[in-house]
Amino acid sequence: MIFRQLFDKESSTYTYLLADPATGEAALIDPVLEHVARDSKLVAELGCRLVSVFDTHVHADHVTGAGKLRELTSAKTHVSARGGAPCADVEMQDGHVTRVGNIALTALATPGHTNGCMCFLVTAEGEPLRVFTGDALLVRGCGRTDFQEGDAATLWRSVHEKLFSLPDDTLVYPAHDYRGFTVTTIGEEKRLNPRLGESMTLESFVTLMKNLDLPPPGKIHEAVPANRACGQRP
User: Fold this and answer.
1) What's the start-to-end Cα distance of the chain, in Å?
2) Which domain CATH number covers 111?
3) What pTM, to 2 d.p., does this model score?
4) Is 39 tagged catalytic?
5) Within a domain: 110
6) Domain count, the chain
7) Which residue is catalytic, options 35, 55, 62, 78?
């Protein structure tokens, strides 16, 4: 499998490229509008064609490149059926499987940061198990729960029931990182995540998230309505 991790410095967003070298089919997870040209060029340079674009949720800190990529390539856009983006070609339910060549992406509904958060469990022959966790699970952290239908108790259950039930050696790729980390594992996060790991309880987590007192994302008023329209700014 071809795998690349790409980065947007302004929002600290990771975009992921997955491609099957046997068929040339490729997918992008969480593309950023300002990097559509970069991402499209990379797909072409690798001799692949983009067939699927996934957003883990309706982001509040950047505008998705999904709609623009669909316009350029005819790739199908994918979001959660609860994601609030009716513009998407495919509205996924929990357990929905998308195939990109010989790569399988299984959607895991993980609400809590937003109602429509989806993680993607990726399997391919000869490859380690990977899960792309959006903002539900970050490296030693998690997404906030104080806007966009956020609910701390729901996020706790999503992580513990859907993600922490995966094998410990599953590689975890988040949608963001603000400290330079690129990857972790389920086992690491179960042991070491200060918000969601074994040292915390549900009650402590809810109290912690309630008292974070963070400023709103800088692009929230632009990004949320644009992302509900697949990145087409109103």
Assistant:
1) 37
2) 3.60.15.10
3) 0.97
4) no
5) yes
6) 1
7) 62
Catalytic residue at 168? no
Q: Is 221 a catalytic residue?
A: no
Active-site pick, 35, 78, 96, 176: 176
Q: Which entry of 8, 61, 151, 177 is annotated as an active-site residue?
A: 61
Examine residue 232 and state whether it is found in any structural domain, yes or no: no
Tell me, yes or no, if 61 is annotated catalytic. Answer: yes
Whether 135 is a known active-site residue: answer: yes
For residue 80, what are the domain limits?
2-213
| Whole-Å CA distances, 187 to 73, 88, 107, 155 | 38, 34, 20, 18
Q: Does the annotation mark 160 as catalytic?
A: no
**Is residue 58 one of the residues assigned to a domain?**
yes
Catalytic residue among 57, 78, 96, 151: 57
Is 96 one of the catalytic residues?
no
Instruction: With a cut of 90, say whether residue 17 has pLDDT above it.
Output: yes
Strands 76-80 and 90-92: parallel
What tens digit of pLDDT does each residue of 115-134 get? 999 999 999 999 999 999 99
Among 59, 78, 151, 177, the one annotated catalytic? 59
22-34 pLDDT per residue, tens: 999 999 999 999 9
- Does any domain span residue 155? yes
Bridge partners of 60? none
